Amino acid sequence: MASTSREDRESSSSPLKRVASEPFASRPQNGDHSPQPTSTAPTPKKCMRCSKPFFVQDGVYQRQEECHYHYGKLKWNAKRKSQFFECCDRPRRAGGCERADVHVWKGLTFVNNKHYFGNIVVTKVPKRSQPASVGLPSTISSSFPGVYSMDAEMAFTAYGLELIRLSVVALDGRHVYEAYVRPDNDIVDYNTRYSGLSARELEAFAKKSLKEVQNDLMGFLSANSILIGHGLENDLRVLRMVHQKVIDTSIVFLEAGPNKRTSLRFLAKRYLQKDIQSSRFGHDSVEDALTCMELMLMKVGQDLTKTSTTTTISSH
Ligand SMILES: [Zn+2]
Ligand SMILES: [Zn+2]
């Protein structure tokens, strides 16, 4: 079934579409900091959308095959006593309601993706004269290493998910960094439903390389900075960045049980009475980063109130 999504409409008319269609026939265009993977026997990948196996070797799709998938979850319908997809209200065995040119994979596990081993940056312990942190309230010393919240948007290349946009907000909510990024490898799917970026928009805005973004971040983050995010490991992976002082709202707010992460959208509604990610044009990384910061400020405020109440009671 032909899709009428914005993603398909826009990508079919974009100049980037021509580039995106080439990985099936040519080598990928690697940038200067992207390692050339060694040639190995192809291992099947599992499409993260439709679960079908497909083959990619050294960044080249071995066969072009359309992906038909459901972007919504399967939900139990008590009245009909059966499961239905929330995207199209079709039953469990129904074919996908969305179409994409290729199958896609996350590729975010280092072990399964040698591509991710190259050019990883590690935040450094600051020397004595730490530069002033960006976006600090004036009441905080300039030696303060900073508390930031970040959110990355990603698109698919043959190597998996890669960074296309990064937003960072500071402790006081100021939007302190924004970058639109051209991945080193050809994009095969813009992931517009989630990334919020179409081929045309990325063509217009994306000026930076991943390496430039890494350099920018190293300019104001140190190993002592606190980074907040939701499912932050994925953001750090596409950034190829190692940072240890992290607070992940998907772990702090374990609403559904120890191994079940709750969506940021749900947390925003529940704790901040805020509707986010409701646009059909995708997520907004600034809004998501700000929401994570607000959630943590709320949580810390609550914890401090509890602590001071406990201290007051026990001191009497
Ligand atoms: Zn569907
Ligand atoms: Zn698929």
Sum this structure up briefly:
Helices cover 27% and strands 21% of the residues. The protein is α+β, with helices and mostly antiparallel strands and 316 residues long. The chain has a domain of 176 residues: Ribonuclease H-like superfamily/Ribonuclease H (Nucleotidyltransferase, domain 5).
Key phrases:
single chain; Nucleotidyltransferase, domain 5; 6-stranded mixed beta sheet; globular; binds zinc ion
Q: What global shape is seen?
A: globular
The span between the termini is: 71 Å
Radius of gyration: 21 Å
User: Quick one: how many beta strands?
Assistant: 15
**Strand fraction band?**
15-25%
Which stretches are poorly predicted, pLDDT < 50 over at least 5 residues?
1-37
How would you sum up this structure, described in words?
There is one protein chain. The chain is of the alpha+beta class and 316 residues long. The chain has a domain at 118-126 and 143-309: Nucleotidyltransferase, domain 5 (2-Layer Sandwich), CATH 3.30.420.10. 27% of the residues lie in helices and 21% in strands. It contains nine helices and 15 strands. Strands 9, 10, 11, 12, 13 and 15 form a six-stranded mixed beta sheet that branches. Strands 1-2-3 form a three-stranded antiparallel beta sheet, with no helix packed on it. A two-stranded antiparallel sheet has the order 4-7. Helix 8 (264-272) crosses helix 9. It starts with 5 loop residues before the first helix and ends with a helix. Residues 1-37 have low confidence and may be disordered. It binds zinc ion (ZN) (2 copies). The site of one zinc ion has 7 residues, from loops.
